[in-house]
């Protein structure tokens, strides 16, 4: 180990862009964080940090599997030491070194999301979550589906923590609908959170796409009975029944670390019932609202109304003198310059998406495996073609 540290201390010399870096990746990977007991973790960490920040990105792309392995070991070491925040900047630099473009997914993306989650520091991961992934960085000609699933699962958890439920639902859906031949614990946990976030956002469980693997229906759904019961009771719009079911399955929700989301489901049901009142009444007292929605009293009803007004979920005003709530129509007329600019930007995104879909369709059309499958040159089941770095199965 002393020899390794001595070698790394001369790193400023061998990490210049014109010097090959693949040899040193192997040295670091084989002899650093994989050791049972690291004699001098701080020195090793600082040297690895320096290497990642100064190494030649072009050389790294010829040894992405080894480089990614080093990042995985670094992540595990920081997680074991409960120091996740220290690795966030390092892994951001590592991803930039590996990527051919910003739309390329690497296995290190999952590591970055994991560290951001553990550190409760979500914003550094957002630039890597807000882009549409169009390609996968092949590491030694392959890509472990575990990292793909973890990226979308951790990403969904980050968006859930930020209360961006629409984006979180999309990420959980990507994890659930990944082509699979066996049950994945990651997919199972993503499915449970998918149900909860779907209830919070839409008031019902959104139907999964038709291309979802049969594994979900056969195995994952039966393992999520408590969550399906929760969704079924949620549709009754009865907070008392929902609270009773939450207490019944509290041990399950606690074990799955979903207690916080379940509580948000209960809160969202109160909000949903308040929104239903806006379609019936123009004015309503806080006391009457609390009674109809099954809240503890006018103070709690006022708290909910104020939060909903702040979040733009309802349009209303409260008269503090008589405790009356007046509901209003949406003041947005959709004719101001800012709204027109937003519509223009959304149309541009649609055009770009259409062009990308045409390009992807063309790539699939000329794929030899796909052509062979269409011509009937293979059996009725099995792998038709590999796209986006994952195997796509036809049944």
TrEMBL record:
Location (main, coarse): cytoplasm
Superkingdom assignment: Eukaryota
InterPro entries assigned to the protein according to its UniProt record, in alphabetical order: COP9_N (IPR055089), CSN3 (IPR050756), CSN3_C (IPR048621), PCI_dom (IPR000717), WH_DNA-bd_sf (IPR036390)
One of the Pfam families matching this protein, by short name: CSN3-like_C
An example Gene Ontology CC term for this record: COP9 signalosome
PROSITE patterns: PCI
Subcellular localization(s) per the UniProt record: Cytoplasm; Nucleus
Positions of the PCI domain: 164-332
Signal peptide residues on this chain, from the entry's feature table: none
GO BP annotations, alphabetical order: ubiquitin-dependent protein catabolic process
SMART domains for this protein: PINT
Keywords: Cytoplasm, Nucleus, Signalosome
Family: Belongs to the CSN3 family.
Annotated protein name in UniProt: COP9 signalosome complex subunit 3
Organism: Astatotilapia calliptera
